[in-house]
């Protein structure tokens, strides 16, 4: 259970990114293998994904509050 929950979170995040990406085919086997591997090694990928999302949010908030 402790391993499956974060792995599921990584799977959902990466699958959501795949479905939103119009440049990648959803039927590409290599993409699904990558998602599976990313989910299995979630102790490495989840912190990286979260860090990227936090940095993106921080940079977006800086550009919104920047004076003109």
Task: Please specify the SSE layout and strand pairing.
Layout: H1 4-20, H2 29-40, H3 42-65
Helix pairs in contact: 1-2, 1-3, 2-3
Radius of gyration: 15 Å
| Major sheet summary line | none
Structural class: mainly alpha
H/E element sequence: HHH
Helix count from the secondary structure assignment: 3
Total strands:
0
Shape: flat
Instruction: Indicate the low-confidence ranges by residue numbers.
Output: none
- The chain-level mean pLDDT equals 87
Percent range of helical residues: over 70%
Describe the oligomeric state of these chains in a short phrase. Answer: single chain
- What is the end-to-end distance? 50 Å
> What fraction strand?
under 5%
Name the features.
single chain; 68 residues; mainly alpha; flat
Please, could you describe this protein's structure?
The chain is mainly alpha-helical and 68 residues long. It is 78% helix and 0% strand. The protein is built from 3 helices and no strands. The chain has helices at 4-20, 29-40, 42-65. It is flat and about 45 Å long. The protein starts with a helix and ends with a helix.
């Amino acid at each position: 259970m402790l391993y499956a929950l974060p792995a599921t979170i990584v799977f959902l995040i990466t699958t959501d990114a795949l479905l939103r990406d119009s440049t990648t085919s959803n039927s590409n086997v290599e993409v699904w293998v990558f998602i599976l591997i990313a989910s299995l090694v979630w102790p490495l990928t989840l912190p990286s994904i979260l860090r990227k999302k936090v940095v993106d949010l921080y940079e977006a908030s800086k550009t919104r509050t920047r004076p003109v």
